[in-house]
Amino acid sequence: MIFIFAEDSDYSINDIIDWLIFYNKKYYRINDSTSLFVSYISIIGKSFTINLEDKQGNRIKLTEKSQILIRRASNIKFLPSKEYSRELSVVKEHLYRESHALNTAVKSLLNSISMFGNFVDNASFSKIEIMRKAALCGLNIPDTHIISNCSQLRMGISNYKALITKAISNGYARTGGKELNYYTERVVEIPSVEEFFPSLIQPQIQKLADVRVFFASRTFFTTAIMSQRNPQTKVDFRRYDRNKPNRVLRLKLPNGIEEKLRNLMDLLELNSGSIDLILDRFGQYTFLEVNPEGQFAQVSFPGAYYVEKFIANTYE
Question: At the N or C end, where does the chain have fewer CB atoms within 10 A?
Answer without folding.
Answer: C
